Amino acid sequence: MAIVVDTVALETDPEGYLIHIGDWSPDVAEAMAEADGCELTDAHWQVIDFLREYYSEYGFAPAVRILTRAIARRLGPDKGNSRYLYRLFPDGPARQACRYAGLPKPTGCI
Amino acid sequence: MAGRLPVPKLAPGAAAKLVSRRAEPDTQRALGFPGDLVDGWEDVAVAAMRNVVAERGALRLFLDSCMKCGACTDKCHYFIGTGDPKNMPVARQDLFRDVYRRYHTLSGRLVPWLVGAKRLTPEMLEDWYAYFHQCSQCRRCAVYCPVGIDTAEFAMAAREVMDRIGIGQHYTNEVTEKAIRLGNNLGLPGPALADTLAGLEEDILDDTGAAVRLPLDEPGVEVLLVTPSADFFAEPHVDGLIGYAKVFHQAGLRWTLSSHASEAANFALFTGNREHMSALARRIVEAARGLGASRIVIGECGHAWRVAHNHLEALAGPLDFLARGRVEHVVEVTDELIRAGALVLDPAANDHRRVTYHDSCNIARASRLGDIPGGQFIVPRRVLRAVCNHYVEMARGTTREATFCCGAGGGLLADDLMELRTKGAAPRMEAFRAADVTHLAAMCAICKSQLARVFPDYGFDREQVVSVHPLVGDAVRLRAAP
């Protein structure tokens, strides 16, 4: 499986997650979102950027509660909840937002 | 609908295309299986069948004891949801039974056409893979079987045989491999876990003003809590973890989580592979011994409790170092504290909720809670009634030993099985609808993830799914310091 970004084919797993995190660029997120019929706004980018920052520090995507707290601090408490995140990423922040951010899919009972 | 469910119209082959993603070769090899379908796979499978049947006494009995009475046929939620006759429990069992008979019985070898014995052809193997990954190993059929045949045993054995010829399921095997290697199903590293727990402590302080701790790797404490890693990561699970912490805080129990045993779940149960089950179980006992804990308490996770309660000693060595000689479930701890008057509760804190309880399969039909017969049904309800003024049961025939699976147990909580999961959830969804409540509480990480995921498809809100312990946590009157 692959996603084509600027004429370059980047390897993905069958569910569309990048195999090599180093292949990521903002254009990858835009291409994935476009394929889903979703337009990325600043609100989406705030989430994607935080996921990438956290991942670069811990080697792991943040737990949903860490993400909501970070969003609450940056954007206010009315947005620091999973309802807000699901509005942005209907397939769920752990799945859809991680995929756009180039991170591996979280596994387990989630 | 509730207790008397309509039998669906038969739809042969309707679920044949709902095939779960296969495991990657690297995952298979890391678990000690062939990476891909081996040459001469029929012979390898026949030998593997002999071994798994020899190892599993119950299965040996079940191979011979079905009298085709039909009592099980309409009891499976996947049959009810899809109408595919191969999802009738007896038909699922016969996929295994007919093949076993062909190679391992005299009549099957000599006159297979007379006894319905069948070869393991590529087409049969396809059916095996599809339909043994459409069994959530929930054991509901076994409750209605007059001789107690448990289809889950067939599904586990068939999956183990398939693993041995190089065909594994992606979801279960990726998670099993990761948990053996990294200590939890998520692959969550220790520093991220520590950061997560510190954040939750801040949240609780902000919300309640109480300095409730979530200790990690603290030696010399009484209780080691081992919980599904979803409790660290996901919603609604994390509120359960906060609830346990509030209970321990309030009771003054000294406790810790462990980064070495940061997972209660044991996905190897879904194939029954003993070596992998042991590898996962050993982490729990090693952590308890290493930290000097005298009690192991398991968080809200269905099959984790089944493995810990029924098999931990056999898998990971003697438990005589534990004060009570056995592992405990967090709801048993809470129940005991409530009954001893050690928690001050204000059930009015949950007055905005009307709550029902979903019995998770592995707790309801494969284990016990407390020290009384049927305690697995009584203890969680006793806790819920103590903390909620508005508690409502779902209809008879959909609860307790007759409970319906959430639709995703036994390794089927895979995104690639979403259609099956949605259809298999139908009986539980209809019972929930009929109960007319605001919240469904469940004590299983898989149930909670699955139900929160499918609730919107049935017109409900994902936030209506909760753990038991957030309800406890909301009702506990916290004191400022332990």
What integer value in Å does the Rg of chain B equal? 22 Å
**Main sheet characteristics of chain B:** 4 strands, parallel
Q: Over the alpha carbons, how many angstroms does the gyration radius of chain A reach?
A: 13 Å
- How many strands appear in the DSSP assignment of chain B? 7
List the helices and strands of chain A in order: EEHHHHH
> Given the structure, what is the number of helices of chain B?
23
Structural domain count of chain A: 1
Regarding CATH, which class of chain A? Mainly Alpha
Walk across the major sheet of chain B and give the strand order.
2-1-3-4
| Alpha-carbon distance between the two ends of chain A | 24 Å
Give the overall form of chain A. Answer: globular
**In sequence order, what are the helices and strands of chain B, one letter per element?**
HHHHHHHHHHHHEHHEHEHEHEHHHHEHEH
Q: How would you classify the helix and strand content of chain B by structural class? A: mainly alpha
The pair of chains with the biggest contact is: A-B, 21 and 37 residues
What would CATH call the homologous superfamily of chain A?
A: DsrC protein, C-terminal domain
Provide structural commentary.
The complex is a heterodimer of chains A (110) and B (482). With 110 residues, chain A is mainly alpha-helical. Chain A has one domain: Orthogonal Bundle (Arc Repressor Mutant, subunit A), CATH 1.10.10.370. Chain A has helices at residues 26-35, 42-58, 64-75, 82-88, 93-100, and strands at residues 2-5, 8-11. Chain A has a two-stranded antiparallel sheet. Chain B has 482 residues and is mainly alpha-helical. Helix content of chain B is 49%, strand content 5%. Chain B has helices at residues 25-30, 41-55, 57-65, 77-82, 89-104, 106-110, 112-115, 122-132, 140-144, 151-164, 170-182, 190-208, 230-233, 237-251, 274-291, 302-316, 330-339, 361-364, 375-387, 418-424, 426-435, 445-454, 469-475; strands at 223-226, 255-256, 295-298, 328-329, 355-358, 439-442, 465-466. In chain B, the strands form 2 sheets. Chain B has a 4-stranded parallel β-sheet with strand order 2-1-3-4. Chain B has a 3-stranded parallel β-sheet with strand order 5-6-7, sandwiched between helices. The longest helix of chain B has 19 residues, at 190-208.
